[in-house]
Specification:
- The protein has helices at about 1-5, 10-20, 30, 35-45, 75-80, 85-95, 155-175; strands spanning about 55-60, 100-110, 110-120, 135-140, 150-155.
- It is α+β, with helices and mostly antiparallel strands.
- Strands 1-3-2 form a 3-stranded mixed β-sheet. It has a two-stranded antiparallel sheet with strand order 4-5.
- Its EC number is 1.1.1.3.
- It is an enzyme of class 1 (oxidoreductase).
Length: about 180
């Protein structure tokens, strides 16, 4: 979303992210929130919550009629995605007029979990987020006023490969 603040068009940003390997093979997994929702489900379960994917409120950036059941990936990227440019651009402009930015955010609070676009102050950790980085803000009894913030690369071939390798090493340790 940060690229849109620089005046780039939504469809161009998505196509470029796909070209760089930052999105899922079908970018609708990212734009529809399902990739984030699956990761949120894993995190929520690690935190002891007994929830299912259906329990997560997911707000998609595209309407159902643009989904994978209706339109191929190529048609979506080349013909349909540009139809979202003005709507997304308008949301970015409205947020900017208030000194804010838009970020696609996952929030886990107790057994509640939601994923979607949020308007945030540009000086908060999520608001300062740029490019393909990810940020996790942890609020707890110890961090209720000022969250513990973890930030780093969140996409790309090298990042994914490093994560898979780390998982393999963890599995090896588990079985040795």
């Amino acid at each position: 979303m940060s690229e849109l603040e620089d005046g780039k068009v939504f469809s161009f940003v998505v196509k470029e992210a796909k070209r760089l390997g930052y999105t899922e093979p079908d970018p609708r997994d990212d734009l529809g929130g399902m990739d984030v929702a699956r990761k949120a489900l894993i995190l929520a379960r690690l935190l002891g919550q007994r929830i299912n994917l259906e329990d997560i409120k997911v707000d998609s950036l595209y309407p159902d009629n643009m989904g994978p059941k209706s339109i191929s990936v190529d048609d979506f990227i080349n013909h349909v995605l540009p139809l979202l440019d003005s709507e997304v651009g308008e949301k970015v402009a409205v947020a900017a007029s208030k000194g804010n930015v838009l970020r696609y955010v996952c929030m886990i609070e107790g057994s509640r979990c939601q994923v979607g676009l949020q308007e945030l102050p540009k000086d908060c950790p999520l608001g300062r987020l740029r490019g393909s980085d990810n940020v996790v803000e942890i609020y707890s009894r110890c961090y209720k006023n000022s969250p513990l913030v973890i930030q780093g690369a969140g996409a790309g071939n090298d990042t994914t490969a490093a994560g898979v390798l780390a998982d393999i090493v963890d599995l090896q340790d588990l079985f040795n």
